[in-house]
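Following up on my earlier thread - several people asked me to post the actual chain instead of describing it. Fair enough. Here it is, all 176 residues.
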Amino acid sequence: MISFTFNMNKAVVDRKALTAAVNRGVDKAMPKSLESLKRRIQANYKPRSRSSRPGESPSVHSTNPRRSLQNVQVVYDRRTKKGTVGAVRLTGIQSLTQISEPLPGLLEGGGVMTVPEVSWDGKRWFTETRRRRAKPGQKKRKRKVRIAARPAVGPAFNAEIQSGNVLSPWQNVVSN
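Reply from S.P.:
Thanks for posting it. Predicted structure:
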């Protein structure tokens, strides 16, 4: 029979070296996990001409790389060891619509937005924009529009967890 004894009083752990090794590993692994999530989110936004149905991922109608839902950014703060992935806030500069939250969040969870409209004859209503403003004597109204949820980030995160891409960069973070 083999016996094994270990004296804990003689065990020495260099906490500074261990903490530094863990921090180096986190600084390598976290951006990799965030980048894989970013690619999955971008793949969920479908470029197509038709509107997406409620429950589907949102359709992207813009080809502008900066002013599009597909403009997903990754931010990682090494000091706090926290990261954020998400679509850039689109504020609707060209429109006069009043949105309770930024567009990516509104599409992710659903919500309500107010659309100002203008009419020349009182029968047909058009969305009021900065180019098409109401003139004196024209009729105006504000219509509330309910936006159904079209999640993209939540399903992408769940798919990344299932595929193992979130945790695989963390394997062997601390090594010799």
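Residues 14-165 form one domain. That should answer part of your original question.
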